[in-house]
């Protein structure tokens, strides 16, 4: 390699860009540099950051997988973390991150692999003010490094790209992790359908690859061919990982110069192989062999979709005009005149989305996806024709400058007021963007802003949406029913055929239709009246942002909470309204009726609210056990207009039979689909159900739904709205008068009768007595799912007990990395391994969750063993390490709020909980700070340790029907039978009449804390056997928050 002419000992890296086009509120500074090894880095100095991060994106992904080793790019992503020359311990990196409030992750995409981490900005706790650190540039370099967890993390991170070890003994384990990751996705329709479309693409284009890989493709089969797999992974790394293909982003508190020095010191060692940027030109993902086909696929979920894929171009160089945004704006429109409005009115569809994307440098796709109703599926050919008629309409009207002006205006406003996102999200996404050909000073704005109206480019873009340049995928569980093939990797049943001649002729005709041949209902959208005009923000600097909202109205009808934004300065607001009513969640019947009502209101609002939505102003209606929540959020300029429309639609809803039937059917499917989610996604519903006094689960709701009619809803919803208590939170760029006016609007539109506090629902949790050892079993309904799941929960106490809570938070922190390292990395129990606190209503506890092919009994044994071992670890832990963990959890609690919405959510959580504990974080910290190791050991021995007789446990076992390992049914049977006996035992005399089993004999195998598990068979009876906690109460007198002002 030729040396640069400049022969200084340490030449500075090239500074490529120093002035970044950035949002108005962005107080970070930026610099893009290129090291001598051609590694490009974006440095971000954020003096206020409490979390800092780095991400590195390598321009290689699954498109570069060898044909005989699918998944290799992904496997390399996993294996890269397994030890480096400088830090050979395989979990050195994660241990370091965890002890500094951090975490890491990575993903493999088609043409890039992205690695990132996040850590605390300082090794001190963030309440011990040390922000001067960022300003004293001249502070000596070594103390800067010592004080910055970022340096230590960067050092460990850089080594993955300098000298990874691919440790031999971690190989099998990590490949099992990949295998388990793949098994987790096997029953997931998104993955299945994505792969089906890939597998049925041009076999000469890398899009056809299977990107995740599994144990067979990465281990068994290559071994059988005599391949040295470790060498193969190292070769892939050597072949594709090169400094000039890497884009690094580092976000820190330190100055740009310091960050530049660190990056140069640590990343200059990454070898450069001068590899070309990957491109796939002159090969199309769909050729004449794949185009003009219709694919019928059978999903796991009950769903019906119609998808169009057009071969499109890669628009990477057209960032200024982004022609595909013009197409997706019109095709994806939901307002009057749109495709969706038309096919929805026909009763054919529930939703539509459209968009262009770059598949890889060299090719792109444009997709349209439509959610069909039952009728729509029967009429899918008509739906296809409508889409082509609309495309003809677009072609008939020359590209409209006013539409692009709207897109420009909205993209400008959104970019200008863009708020910070979490550090690692920022670095990870920017490092991926750096792979694209944006001018370096436009890295932030490039993807967001539409800058130019380019009618020629729009015309060209439109020319791809031709009747000879697409294919269709029709997804349904029962149509056409004669699927005759199976996709290789996921087993998805499908059928593929040429689009029939007469259908194709109709499509061509539609694509060439004239205005008179098209339905008159189709037309271009009207001017969007929701684009905000008033964007002023009155900025009043304050020393310390207010931590609580003020209660500005508090009477029998209404409580209104308000805070004018004092730290984010965006022309936005969030308004949340609870309409409190015991009726909403009283029974499964009323719960379902409330759901249906909510869906009907939303359905009626689709066309109206779409313009608002694309202008950054949205609304939502959520049904929950104590009522309905109505929210509006976004630019505050036209917020009251939208809120009024939503409230009026709620009050005046016209329950139409045809829409009711469509929505009922959709809700029915979503209830039925619930059972086909991943086991780990289901288990939380059961745990919340089992620790709350009240609440319903899916199957109870499902059994009510069929009997509910449109007439029921017509009479139900006026009842629901008849008597309410209204609670409002208005937060953001609003004045007190605005908040009061919005409140008046709710009151005067709905005009509810007073719901006195004596009728408000009380939330209570169940109390698990010391020594309890409960097991609840569910059989999973998906016959093809191979994964079991366990949620292992230990009850600790009432969430309002601040001391217990602090100990619980610290326990979760201490066990976080070890649980992952032991149960996932070392024992490879499954891809989904989670541990942490378990807090629901008033119930506070600790939990470990595992999804695995291993049986729940086995998993429970592993968890017990882990918790037993960890007791020793804790006892032997040095004071220093203990303090580090304490600092870490305190830093996490004190993490800064990133944007307006995160602050609104914090307030709303504390309002909805009815504890109004707005300063909970500070209380947590105050209770964490004095904790000693001895305190924690004592806590652990009482509440967590399997040997504790006082420990209270509930384990939820989700059992897969299909097991891939030879299970131990006999053992399970015994456990079940013992359990049945014990529940009867626990329930008292009447039940014990039927007992035929000996009581807790000495010969029995002890599980856990020595008590025999009680299997919960009758949930109602079991709940009745437990005591309930006291309900939620305000932690302070609400009058403390009042700021009612002078009465007029
Ligand atoms: Zn993975």
TrEMBL record:
Keyword Transcription regulation: no
Amino acid composition bias (Basic and acidic residues), ranges on this chain: 11-21
Annotated ranges, domain Coenzyme PQQ synthesis protein F-like C-terminal lobe: 810-908
GO biological process: peptide catabolic process; proteolysis involved in protein catabolic process
InterPro entries from the UniProt entry: Metalloenz_LuxS/M16, Pept_M16_N, Peptidase_M16, Peptidase_M16_C, Peptidase_M16_M, PqqF-like_C_4
Pfam family for this entry, one: Peptidase_M16_C
Superkingdom of the source species: Eukaryota
GO molecular function list: metal ion binding; metalloendopeptidase activity
Keyword Metal-binding: yes
A GO term from the CC aspect: mitochondrion
Limits of the Peptidase M16 N-terminal domain: 42-204
Region (Disordered): 1-21
Keyword terms: Hydrolase, Metal-binding, Metalloprotease, Protease, Zinc
Record domain Peptidase M16 middle/third: where: 415-703
Domain Peptidase M16 C-terminal: 230-409
Similarity section: Belongs to the peptidase M16 family.
Protein name: A-pheromone processing metallopeptidase Ste23
The species this protein was found in: Lepidopterella palustris CBS 459.81
Biological classification of the source: Eukaryota, Fungi, Dikarya, Ascomycota, Pezizomycotina
